[in-house]
Design brief:
Elements lengths: L15 H11 L7 H14 L3 E5 L2 H11 L7 E5 L5 H8 L3 E5 L10 H7 L4 E4 L11 H11 L2 E5 L7 E2 L2 E2 L6 E5 L12 E5 L2 H11 L22 H11 L2 H18 L6 E2 L7 E2 L5 E5 L4 H13 L5 E2 L16 H9 E4 L7 H19 L1
Parallel strand pairs: 2-3, 2-4, 4-5, 5-8
Antiparallel strand pairs: 1-9, 6-7, 6-11, 8-9, 10-12, 12-14, 13-14
């Protein structure tokens, strides 16, 4: 019997057990300890930034970043329509309004022309999302932000190690935010990281992360802060994962190559596309079929599940959610309906991908007929 192939599965093939046990035995199990410092320093260096700030998860990282820029009620923050809901939620947590714009059809990242049309006197920031491991087009986003005096917060939750014109994401805006959830490139179980070159932002974000406690007057809090800290145990796991990040990324790129060899694409069927200026880390393999509708895509996914292959639909558009109900964006709406993510994790073998490809091809043929 064929083994079950989930969409994602973490790999613990390095020093994870050694480091976690060492953290336990040291007694440093909460939000202080040497592994936190080591992970922050290593991750900042990797992203080419001066600072990195460990946080409890990617969503709190986004909220912390936006709050640290003093964005709040009456302000607007521009976000793409096709993204995990946390991107918009983090804006709303501050009392600001997420302004939802359409995406570019090839990279699935925010449409810069749509961003420019959405800017008002109340706009304070832009949050480009490097979705499914592919960077957004940062030069025109940064140019637009500079023209209008806006902050740029990179949502790099899915894109550890991806590059834009040779530079790693996380150091391309005023700050970057990464997730270390269990299905990400590297994991701490839950957890995340902020990256920045701005010393003032670094100090403010660290203060807010730690309940805004005064550095010179212990247990004195001059403003409302948050408890968004990572534990030393999580950081121990994360450091062991980080030591393997280049192998993990190389393997994902190899897996993407296997999918390209095994799935028959056409004018209507496509896999991940990559812009010339980007190097994706292929957090998720993306399959699109222009012939899909809601019902046929569901039948396709159920057929894969019957063969022991998990899949998942693209994110729903943020604008379709009742809590953020707004003007619909046609590209995001269409892509959300025709996109499927296939198993993507470093433990997949070439034989696994060949098996997936065989089932996918057969089921896509069935859709056509």
């Amino acid at each position: 019997m064929n083994s079950y192939l989930p969409v994602s599965r973490p790999s613990f093939s390095g020093k994870e057990e050694e480091y976690v046990l060492e953290a336990l035995r040291s007694g440093w199990v909460s939000s202080r300890g040497p592994y936190i410092d080591a992970l922050e320093q290593a991750f900042a260096k990797y992203c080419g930034t001066r600072f990195a700030i460990a946080v409890s998860n990617g969503t709190t990282g986004l909220h912390l970043a936006i709050a640290a820029f003093d964005i709040g009620p009456g302000d607007e923050v521009i976000v793409p329509d096709l993204t995990f809901i946390a991107t918009a939620n983090a804006v709303a947590y501050t009392g600001a309004t997420p302004v939802i714009v359409d995406i570019e059809p090839n990279t699935l990242t925010m449409d810069v022309a749509a961003v420019r049309r959405a800017i008002t006197p109340r706009t304070k920031a832009i949050v480009p999302v490097h979705i499914y491991g592919h960077p957004a087009d940062m030069d025109p986003i940064r140019a637009t932000a500079k023209e209008y005096g806006l902050w740029v917060v990179e949502d790099a939750a899915e894109a550890h190690g991806a590059t834009y014109k040779g530079c790693r994401v996380g150091g391309l805006g005023d700050c970057g935010v990464f997730s270390f959830y269990g299905n990400k490139i590297i994991t701490t179980g839950e957890g995340g990281m902020l990256t920045t070159n701005d010393s003032g932002f670094n100090q403010r974000a660290r203060s807010l992360r730690d309940q805004a406690m005064d550095l010179k007057r212990r247990y004195w809090h001059g403003e409302r802060g948050f408890n968004y800290r990572m534990t030393n145990i999580q950081a121990a796991l994360g450091l062991a994962q980080f030591e393997q990040i280049e192998q993990f990324i190389a393997r994902r790129r190899e897996i993407m190559g296997w999918y390209t060899e095994n799935i028959a694409t056409s004018n209507s069927v496509r896999l991940n596309r990559k812009a010339d200026w980007a190097e994706s880390v292929h957090w998720m393999v993306c399959l699109e079929d222009d012939r899909f509708n809601t019902a046929s895509r569901e039948r396709f996914m159920l057929a894969l599940e019957a063969e022991g292959i998990e899949s998942r639909p693209y994110f729903y558009p943020v604008s379709a959610m009742g809590v953020y109900d707004s003007e619909k964006n046609p590209v995001a709406a269409r892509k959300s309906m025709i996109g499927v993510n296939l198993p993507t994790y470093v433990g997949l073998t070439q034989q696994d991908v060949a098996r997936i490809g065989k089932v996918v091809n057969a089921q896509l043929f069935a859709v056509a007929t």
